[in-house]
Every structure is written in structure tokens, then in C-alpha cells.
Specification:
Helix content: 40-55%
Oligomer: single chain
Number of domains: 2
Strand order of the largest sheet: 1-2
Radius of gyration: 18 Å
Largest sheet: 2 strands, antiparallel
Structural class: mainly alpha
Order of helices and strands: HHHHHEEEEEEHH
């Protein structure tokens, strides 16, 4: 549910605390240690700015831009998965224009911080080479190292205790308890099944991307 649909429906006594906790959880999902300045508590979520201009002007076909805006609105209303927005952008506009459109114009304009975090994490899964918001330095969101590279030297240690949520891409650690797990984003999973999916995916035994949740399910 979009934040605008519930924030005015809660009592005044808890609204501020609830909104603060809501934003805090979304920020935490995007916290990394930037290799440029090692800023404590750095979140890769961009600051909301509906008037932000891209570094270079974008020339896009009106019909294609209209379709992109429709997908963005549907995503913000939980009617489209993030991959629908990202796949359309990259397939339609190409790498350079899509990166500018998504990073400079789309993410800063999303008001609901949960929707913003979900789209950002999906984008970082597909295109981990990015820039820090604090210093503008190149780094890899996946391995948290300086610079851009084709593949990471070391992958995440996704063994029996570590799994990445297929919905929001947050890494989950489980050290005890049953296999029924609920991510902070609300995605429900079976831990054993997720480990099997990951193993089969790494061995290229699955013909589709396990992180493309609607298609995979």
C-alpha cells in the first residue's frame, strides 16, 4: 500500500512515530559503507527532489516517455514490479539514457521511501556500478569496492545462513528457527527452498532469473 493511503488514516498520536520508523527501515535496507569516505550510517537512497535536473538534457520520444511514466505510477501503487520499470527503461532507451532517467529523474521523485528503496535495490542488483551520493565517487554496490568493474572479486557468502530476498534484494541472515521467513518488505519465503533456488541458479539449471519474482513464481 502506498504511504499516502495510510499516513492520513492513523491517529495523530502515533502518526509521527510510525512515519519515522517506516522511513528508518527503508533507509536501513540501503545502508552501505562508502569506500570513498567510510561515512557512518550512509544510505544510498537519494534525497527526494522533484525539481532535480539531469547533468545532460535527455531527448526521449513522447510516446515512450508516457509509457514509462505510466509504469512508474503503477509501480508506486504496487501494481507493477520494479523489474517492469527497469526492463522497459533499459530496453527502450538504452544504457546511458536509462541510467540518467532512473538515477537522476525517477528515484529522487518517488515520494514513498519504501517504493524508492525497492526500485533502487532492484536497480543496484541489475547495475551495481554506481556513484556515492556523498562524494560522487565510483563504487560497486554489490561488493562495496572502489571503482567500476565487470564482475566482483568476491561474491557474497550466501551459504546456509545467508539469503538475498528475491523481492527487495536485502540480505537476510538466519542462525536459528524454522524455515518460514518473512522479509522486512513483506515477502514470504521458505529458507530451504530459497537455498535450493540459489544453488540451481548459480549452476545455470534454471532458465529464468529467480529475482524476477512475477515470472519466476
Amino acid at each position: 500500500m502506498h504511504v499516502s493511503r495510510w499516513q492520513d488514516r492513523v491517529s495523530d498520536s502515533i502518526q509521527l512515530a510510525l512515519e519515522s520508523k517506516y522511513a528508518e527501515l527503508c533507509q536501513q535496507a540501503c545502508i552501505v559503507t562508502p569506500p570513498c569516505c567510510h561515512k557512518t550510517g550512509y544510505s544510498h537512497l537519494p534525497n527526494a527532489n522533484s525539481w532535480r535536473d539531469p547533468p545532460t538534457p535527455l531527448k526521449l520520444l513522447p510516446s515512450q516517455l508516457t509509457r514509462f511514466k505510466i509504469l512508474c505510477r503503477q509501480f508506486c501503487r504496487h501494481k507493477q514490479p520494479p523489474r517492469a520499470v527497469l526492463d522497459y527503461a533499459f530496453n527502450t532507451f538504452g544504457e546511458e539514457k536509462a541510467n540518467i532517467l532512473l538515477n537522476e529523474l525517477t528515484l529522487p521523485r518517488i515520494v514513498d521511501v519504501e517504493r524508492q528503496a525497492t526500485l533502487l535495490l532492484s536497480l543496484m542488483y541489475l547495475r551495481p556500478n554506481t556513484k556515492t551520493n556523498c562524494c560522487g565517487a565510483n563504487f560497486c554496490f554489490n561488493c562495496k569496492r572502489r571503482g567500476h568493474h565487470e564482475s566482483c572479486e568476491e561474491e557474497f557468502d550466501e551459504t546456509t545462513n545467508l539469503v538475498r530476498c528475491r523481492s527487495c534484494r536485502v540480505l537476510l541472515l538466519k542462525v536459528d528457527g524454522c524455515n518460514a521467513v518473512s522479509c522486512v518488505c513483506g515477502f514470504l519465503m521458505n529458507w530451504g527452498e530459497e537455498l535450493n533456488y540459489r544453488a540451481e541458479y548459480k549452476k545455470k539449471m534454471l532458465p529464468i532469473d529467480i529475482f524476477d519474482v512475477p515470472l519466476f513464481n
